[in-house]
Amino acid sequence: MERLVAAVLAAGVLQVLLATADDHYLLSRIAFGPCANQNAPQPIWDAINKFDPQVFIWLGDNIYGDIRRPFNFLVKERTIGPWKNAPRFIPSSSSEMLSRYNSAKNVPGYLRLRAKAKVVGTWDDHDYGLNDAGKELSAKTTNQRLLLDFLDEPQDSPRRKQDGVYTSYTFGPPGKQVKIVLLDTRYHRDPLSSDGSVLGDSQWSWLGKELRGPPSAITIIGSSIQVISNLSGTTGPLFYMESWGRFPKERDCLFKLINDSKRDGVFFISGDVHFGEITRYDCAAGYPLYDITSSGLTQAVEKVLPSPLRFIVRFLAWFTPSTMRVKNQNCRYRSCTYGEPNFGAIQIDWDASPVNLKIQVRDINGLPVTGVDISLSELQAWNRTIKAGQDQRHCTLEVKLPWIVRYRLAILVYSVLALLLLALVGLICAVTLACRVCLRKRKTD
């Protein structure tokens, strides 16, 4: 208990010191991650602590605060299927949310991280209060206070007085500054099917000022949902994931704002989807825009299946077309996605000429599973160095693919289901025929 108290006190002192030292604190190691179920084991903190980040960024689903009901399709309240008549997720009370935050805050590995690194963050849907929720959630004001308490946000912080948890931080001396911009993709977001607003008017105005403000060598934009990738364009109608691609007008506005601001060194980090990947879009600004997705610290798509069957997830990830995904020799699997627990790691070599960025998704042991090395000179609006072949590769949006390519996952799944159904019908017919033959033989006997 004494060690726990000491760690918490040390974390509080460190947060105050770093908050006052942002202007000259040279930042070279950043870790980030989302999707940490407070009730699940969290051994990944050992790898994060070994990486020794100076700043850790929460990207949402920092807890799972809503209540997930089981799949039911034969009872009065059915939560799955075309006959669904009840929601699968429901909000929990504020006291239960607080309890879950307290559990998350006192995970030993996370306590060790808080004692030596500055922790910042935003939220996604499950810590916002409800799966896939947007501006319609009535508890968002209360839940905003709970998140900011979890992040040890000062009581006089502007974040406690505004609608939404968006914010920014700047680290480092002039010429070597890193700006971290954290978006709120929940508080003002319109319904998923609306193609309305993701950020809302006030946040858009704020973001414009941030990007047009004083320059920084590097600008990291943190979004809880993916910005570049739009896998929903190729996984539908089987299932749909949240992303900026579900709001194409808003995403175009975001890209235009970055392009018009002439800001150098911009890239995205994101979470939400329960796997890691790196995507890239070459036709939005004067240089390639990267989106490094890490998800999640405990939640991962491969964990839904037993170990011997996880190759199925990897095959489907490879088979699903993705025009924006970066595929190179740094990938552990052919799909260049990673469906087990992971975190994001950013290393900045300020002594290199030009400055070099090593950005990776790392596994539970701290080993890289996919990554990119980027020269900061490549992320300059005035120095477009992309080759024509690369332009074409990372400029075709998923929704613009030929239909047979775009829907090949659905075609595969439906074909397999049809074959299984035919096989089942054939088996039933064979058994029925065999039974009839046996009955006839008995009567003959």
Written account of the structure:
The longest helix is centred in the C-terminal third of the chain and has 37 residues, at 408-444. The chain is built from 13 helices and 14 strands. It is globular and about 100 Å long. The protein starts with a helix and ends with a helix. The chain is of the alpha/beta class and 445 residues long. It has 2 domains: 25-401, 4-Layer Sandwich (Purple Acid Phosphatase, chain A, domain 2); 405-444. The strands form 3 sheets. Strands 5-2-1-12-13-14 form a 6-stranded mixed beta sheet. Helix content is 33%, strand content 16%.
Write the layout of secondary structure elements.
Layout: H1 2-21, E1 29-33, H2 44-51, E2 55-59, E3 67-68, E4 89-90, H3 94-105, H4 108-114, E5 118-122, H5 125-128, H6 140-150, E6 167-171, E7 178-182, H7 201-212, E8 218-222, H8 232-235, H9 248-261, E9 266-270, E10 277-281, E11 289-293, H10 310-319, E12 343-349, E13 356-362, E14 368-375, H11 388-393, H12 403-406, H13 408-444
Parallel strand pairs: 1-2, 2-5, 7-8, 8-9, 9-11
Antiparallel strand pairs: 1-12, 3-4, 6-7, 10-11, 12-13, 13-14
Helix pairs in contact: 1-4, 2-4, 3-6
